[in-house]
Amino acid sequence: MPRDGGRPSHRPPARDATGGLPDTAVVRITGTDRDGDAVAQPVDWDRTAGPPPMVLMHPERQGTPALAPGERVLVRLKPMGPGRYEGRTLRRMGETPGRILGVFRRGRQQNRIVPTDRRSKAEWIVPAGQEAGAEADEIVLAEPVAQHLHLGLKPARVLERLGKLGDARSISLIAIHTHDIPQVFPDAALNEAKRARGVRLGSRSDLREMPLITIDGADARDFDDAVFAEPDPDQAGGFRLVVAIADVAHYVKPGSALDLSAGLRGNSVYFPDRVVPMLPEDLSNGWCSLRPNEDRGCLFVELRIDRAGRKTGHRFGRGLMRSAARMTYEEVQAAEDAHEDPGLPLAHLYAAYRALLAARTERGALDLDLPERTVVLDEQGRVASVAPRPRLDSHRLIEEFMVLANVAAAEELERLHMPCMYRVHAPPSDEKLEALRGFLATLGISLPPGNQVHPRDFDRVLRRYAGTAESQLISEVMLRSQSQAAYSPDNIGHFGLALPRYAHFTSPIRRYADLLVHRALIKGLRLDRDGITDDQVAAFAEVGDRITATERRAQQAERDAIDRYLAAFMSGRIGGRFEARISGVTRFGLFVTVTEIGASGIVPFATLPDDYWQYDEREQTLTGRRSRGVYRLAQEVEVLLSEANPVTGGLVFHVLDGHRDASAAARRSEPGRRQPEEWSPETRPPEKPPGKRPAEKRSSGKRHSRR
Fold it and tell me: What is the pLDDT of residues 347-377, one digit of tens each?
């Protein structure tokens, strides 16, 4: 499956004639440099145009609190070189200052806070009387205070103590607070959830005798979808499928406290040790969870497919169901592999899945099946193991059933002339497509010209090189060429799935978009009076932008937490050697991913062997001018772990000598090949701001000194 994503959630700012930023813009503080000066990025930036420029903030005037991560500021910009600006504060956009999340450290002369965000390089001091009782090595939330006697330092006061660094709860708490993920439900929302009761049959369809089953992960607690399949008596070789989804709309009414809270959260957020749910547990793990042998309200779709997996019809309804079994992916797969009959329609489910898989292949959907890892914690919250996440046919089975149900939901809303919150996925931008086309050309692979590229063209390449040495490299580069999916009332189709219309219908417990689709279906089909309201329809565009943003916030928080867990796991293995692959090539060094557990870190440029290094953006390589050794994307290397910081999640590696590829260097010497950018004293880097050390093109092979 391709990475989801799509259009930006805000309109990008107008650019000046050179394609840069305007004279003034709103920026968000992302961290600090080593000198303690704030670093920012534009709030509204179209990421399809490339990485956002860096804004180095001019220090605030004396007596004013320093700028802190998360704060939004209207600034006047002055260009400092390609992709770099100096920003001077015109106005702070928020009434409250930004917040600092970090570890409280006690010192002989002064206490300080070490930020947990790796983008913040400078520490903050805590003046006497501003500690709020914080103890050494506690994680604290703080805010800047006005500078006075501490000239050149950034003072802050502690607002909240979050627990000891290393406690079971600390890592996920850092991610939750860093990304401002709401944890506490309003009392009104909790009271509404507690008043919830079971659904009566009434005018609903009675599905309680149908052997619907839920198939989820072993650690799942909320079961929001159930499936059933049987041969279709009306078409030879075809199937009748039923997908039943928890009826969240029955409990979460438009405009209620539960609705407002769910809309603010946008989605549930999943960490190795906890879930921050979109709905209170009385609903998410209670009345909205399709527990086995308990009556539950549902919205269902009956789907009919032919022997080739093509949908021939669908029907939506509101029902009362009783799950016949709660099964895990592993249990379902084991039963299928052993040809066992547990008295459930598993054989029909798999037969229908194989037909749907054939239809998917026929339409040419993109399938980037990249390896994933699962972090397993022990009872104390420490990392016990990091295991590959299995990708079984039972996973794919549920995916294909859900995709078909989501397609039917979008089609039904269009038939009813009802608004739809589409899940959209734009094709790669022209710039990314051209970069991908150029890279594939170095391997002798061509793509159709212009905008004629279809997902099946990508999938054809992936299938051709499956199992080869180039497979991982091609998958990595192809993934980076994809845009991100988004939610929008304006349909542009889903490029990765090769579908003209698509909407999320199958997970209303954990995604607000699905709840909106349920409400639109309820109103359009006149299933009850709790359908979508005119006010909600009028705000669809704004809501789509918001829930796209909350989804990306959740993804980043989950990644950050995993990075910190892995850094904690690796902190006891400093000096160890690991097999890894290069997952990023930049002008400033390499990024590598450890094969064993999937932990990623940086190889600083200064630690590479002494040479003049040439950077080729199209081929994603660094080539030594003297040695002719090459580091390239997806190359296997052996690395040594030199630093691991559980506070920030940062890992630093050294690539061991003797792990450079000579084949790419040989290709470079072919006549007529474009020469890459060379890192040498003759080709200077972009001008750096005063006080900032310029990046070197020549590596000395020595470590950076870190302060």
Answer: 999 999 999 999 999 999 988 767 778 888 8
